[in-house]
Amino acid sequence: MKRRAFLFAMTAAAVMPALAQGKPTKIGIIGSGRIGSTFGTLWAKAGHEIMFSDRDADVAKKAAEAVGTKALSGSVEQAVAFGDVVFIAVPYGALPAIAQQVGSQLKGKVVIDPNNPVPARDGELGAQAKEKGAAISTAAILPGAKLVRAFNSWGYQTMAREANRPAPRMAIPIAADDPGALKVGIQLVSDAGFDPVPAGSLAASKAFDLGSSVSGKVMTADEMRKALSLN
Questions:
Q1: How many C-beta atoms surround the C-beta of residue 42 within 10 A?
Q2: Which tens digit of pLDDT belongs to each residue from 32-58?
Q3: CA–CA distance, 60 with 108 (Å, rounded to integer)
Q4: How far apart are CA 96 and CA 141, in angstroms?
Q5: Whole-model pTM?
Q6: Where do the DSSP E strands lie in 64-221?
């Protein structure tokens, strides 16, 4: 167990300097639908290596083929093993199944979480997560993962349209409890074509959950900081 914890720590430490130097990293994507394929494409264009996975293998394969040489497809387990960073984009109610399937593999890894609980779709789990805050609820489902909350306040169409626009870029609030994971997340938000706005801890991220005062509103970084009282 000590050796495994050491290896996880070394892996996370290696990701940060690579990103800081502008070097590509490997990103495993769980869920290759609209959100997963959108961000896989954006990160591939920024030079990162992507492996898509999905419960429907054909969906993952098509997402990889659409991106081209920077992308592969595989099983969920393969995507987690491949990724120095893992991006999970699934219906909120599917997270416990993901945890059961690959939760042990995710421990110590940077996991980017854009997932929103919708009680009408996700039942009691969704209702509880909406009340408590999505990020801290996800962290409880995936204990040991270095969770980063981002990309959850807009639909994929808005983010696909606004990515890499001329300055000032669209702001994306981002939160994490682990400082190193936050640095990784900030770089990947930037690489996807947005201005990252650090907004505190996972608990604090409830301020930009779906349905919050900033949800769905396209803002600059200064506007976002003001809206979230971060100035």
A1: 21
A2: 999 999 999 999 999 999 999 999 999
A3: 25
A4: 6
A5: 0.91
A6: 71-73, 85-88, 110-113, 146-149, 171-176, 195-198
**pLDDT tens by residue, 75-94:** 999 999 999 999 999 999 99
Please name the residue that has the structure tokens 């854009």.
114
Whether the CB-CB separation of 148 and 88 falls below 8 Å is answered with no
Q: Is 126 helix (H, G, I), strand (E, B) or coil?
A: helix
Q: Which CATH architecture has domain 2-227?
A: 3-Layer(aba) Sandwich (3.40)
State residue 116 phi and psi, 5-degree precision. Answer: -115, 130
Task: Please count the residues of the chain.
Answer: 231
Please give the backbone phi and psi of residue 140, each rounded to the nearest 5 degrees, phi first. -70, -30
The tokens for 34 are 């609209």
Would you list the domain boundaries of the chain? 2-227
How far is it, in rounded angstroms, from Cα 11 to Cα 166?
34
